[in-house]
Amino acid sequence: MEPTVWIYFSKTGTGYELKGSDVVSGFDAFIGVDGTYMVEYAFSDIKNSMHFFIYEWDNSQKKRRTIFEGYQRQNILVNFAKNVNVCHSVRQAIYQEYLMDTEEEELENANS
To answer: What distance in Å separates the CA atoms of residue 45 and residue 96, rounded to the nearest whole number?
Structure first.
């Protein structure tokens, strides 16, 4: 899969892929609208596989900030997958990484 970038408005649950003429308006929204994230699905050399990179705009630093914290990443990506029209393979990658682990943990807790 080719690297893909989306803009995601978490407060409204909407988003779209950034390509063509949408890139400029998407970036403007990214830096100007609170609760907006840039979601990039690209190859990671460290993981040697496709990986989600999530960015938010930091007004105090006037630059993008990468979100690394696991729980925050999970909330953003799961809601992104539920609300934005993305291809099946992207949705499955999110669900496999975050929802499968949660279901397995719940099953383990129920069995103990």
So the answer is: 20
